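Methods: example folding runs. The two proteins below were folded one after another, and each record is reproduced exactly as written to the output file, sequence line first and structure-token line second.
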Amino acid sequence: MNVGRLAIPALVLAVQLVLLGLFVVDWRLPVLITASFVVGAVLLDRPVWAVGGMLAARLISTGTTSFFTIGKISIGLFEPVLLVALIALGLRGVFAGMRFWRPWPWQGVFLSIMAWAVVGLAWCTKFSDGAKEVVTLGVILATTTVILAFLRTWDDVKTAIWAWIGACILIGILAIFGDALGITDYGSQWKASAGGGRETGLGQQPNWFAMNLMFVVHTCAAFALVQRRAVLRWGLMLATLFIFFSMMTSGSRGGAYSIVIGGMLVALGQPLFRKWFIRFLGVGAVFFFVAAVGDIGDIGKGLNRISANVDVLFAQDVRGLNWAACIGMFFDTNGVGIGPGGYIDNLQKYSDWLYHSVYRYPHGIFWGQVAHGGLVGVLQLVAMVVVLARMTMQTIRDTKGTEAEVLAWAMPASMAGYFAWSFVEFSLDEKPFWEWLAVYTALHLLARRAKEPGGTPIPAWTFSIR
């Protein structure tokens, strides 16, 4: 009997049985998988398109745009696109012998975070919540694998950046027209925006909406500086302003501070960016004054909130109560942590009022690690910061004098601003930080290869705008 001749029919039959089983669960699942397989096959020749679509879907997809849920996991726009990218990667590996797995600088630290989360399932408060956290980390690993597998050249990285910028512009446009037409008013959904004056984008909590747009602001401005065509150069400058002020309609103080922190960091090391950062601040100050004084729409309300509440970021006890609860969970578990998930279930012991409020989350990545990961989780977080700092310095050295030099500064500047902001908001698995980090890691890897014998050099930076 020829086993090889039977293998393919058996595989087809197995796939059909799986699809039939999924049809019983939800008829949309096999439809999405079949469509994804077809699209994945089409993307074999241009896999970078899959990455660009995945990044755009990650930015645009929110909880309000979910199609359905499987258990506690929401399925929205991003998940099918990720599946398409994974299929494209799988087909590429089968037919072109492409490597799925490549080492990257922070790989070991991230795998240790996943491993500790899996171990923590043994004592977590609720297994379903803990398993959801592990699955989320698995999705991050899958996304990173796709990005690093397909972004191999400088042109690939630029395509990813263009896709990110385009998605942020689209989000800003949809927010503007959605509000004008009255179809994206989520003010009643979020207490933070219930009183008006805080944009929620496509249904996100205002701070998360601001964070979603924050990452690309510095890079969009830096990308403009290495464009040789004037129309692209000035178009990107205008796009930077548009994305920045779309972000500021959220009225997020942390978003404003993170932009300034990141901008100051990159301005310290890159003279040309420093000059344009000062110019950008000048234009921004004029616009800020006109919009705030004139109370022009959402941007005026958002900017007034930021300027009028600079001194109250820590004035309320919401963050302090959560941080105290995180510290309490740390010591009550002897530094081991409560394991993945379960923060809300443990919170009532430390603050009944907080437990029954809408503010019941750690309010910061560091504090979340204190509560969930304990001492090991905190050490893993510190190790991640150290590894990323070393990777950044190496990337800056490797790209000096090339078109990628400004991105080598601007992309980690956004991450530095996010890191500062993350002490009062967000969780470890927050999107789109990990996608942004993966794109920067792709830049790091290609810059490393460019320095090796026989490597393809990144084009020299022969143009600069004064």
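Second run, written to the same file directly after the first:
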Amino acid sequence: MAAKIEFKRWKNVPDVVNTAEEIGKIADKYLQYASSNKSEDKAQARKTWGQLSDKYWDLLFAILDAQTESFPSALTFDEEERLFIDFGFLHDEITPRNKKFDASLALTSKFALGVFSYRAFSDFIADCWGMITRNPLPVSPSGEKTEDKIEELEKRLSALQEKRNSEILKIVSRSKNMTGTDLDALVSDMSRTLISATKASMRTKEYREAKDDLKQAMSQDRFRYNEAERVMETQLSIAQKDEEEPLGLPELEMFTALHESTKILARKIIYCRQESDKIRRKAEKISHACAQFSQQMMRKELKNMLTKKKEYMAVPAKVARCEQSLLCPHDSEPMLYETASRIMEEMSDLDMDMFGVPRIRMYGVPQVIFIPGQGLGTYDWADHTILLPVFPTTSAEKAIAYGAGTFRWDSDEDRILKNAYETIKDNKGKSILEMATSFYKDYFLWITKEKKGYRILPRDTHKTFLQMFAPRKQED
């Protein structure tokens, strides 16, 4: 007899109790078949596990019906419920966890700060309810308020700039080619004008719609920043040729990486500020559409939104050709939110041009949602979200790269990538689906190996990726 599945908050709610009991009965059959040595029982075990997996949604909807019965202003989930919703865990006898699956660590892991907005599946559900009922979106137990995130990123940028300024002062002072006043002006211009200059270079909405005097000021800041950067590059070149103490290549590369990191972080801060506005507009759009709904209709709309998501949540397993189940697998450990989001941010640093695609200009940076189940990451075009299975196939890096690669391919509306990629000899005659699958694999190698200096891709593919991801000049 399988252990009893029980959720303490809903132990007196018939629908939740009955659904849990149904799952328990199916689990009994599964465990019986799985422990048998008969070949026919092995087939029955796989079939019964599929039936058990399908019950994930029945139990989820039963829990949500129980919580929304009182029509709360916000949905909240305790640790027991989050383990089920976010990781597909029912009970150690039914869904035994891998020995490396530390539930406490998984539930307390925090999302890394960066350009993307990260949500667990339970967070996504709570967000849907907040938008439907026109209530403030709750803060994820694993995240921070957008305002706090931006403030922390700005502190990091300030620290990076101070470090960069200190390094350039040391380098330039060797040759004594610039006076102290000129050096101070150089670092001051780069630090003071970075954000404004980046807005102008990115042609943000704030820049495009600014009044003439403000727009002119931002354009002047861009000119000052570019000029300061030009002078800095000249001074670095002089330092390399210094006869007494020439600037070595390793030191130059370290400084260049530091300087580039300030520019990347500045862009991320701007995207985060824009994202806050996009999230607000999306919430208002959904709230407006549901404004005339009765409470019963709003509860039904929550189920409709999750049912639409259900189709895309099956894709990660299909792409990886692994078991399509949202239940906790016994042979895998989940990737921690902190680790996965940090990898996602690092990959975005290597492909910042992804944020320049038209789809992001229209809908904002895609939200990243961690979903239960196994597989590789994917992109939900309908909801503009990147889905990452918490139990990645092969590795977290591959699952995340596939999610970013799928977004890159699906958002390539101008066919900058597709037109070039289909010219590769090995891609001749491939269907659109085969071409996409091939691109995900190559993008994974490109972002995890080639961008870090390792030659992995075939020569023809390598040259094409250099062409596809070459830096593009900003529009004037």
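Comment on the second run: The mean pLDDT is 93.
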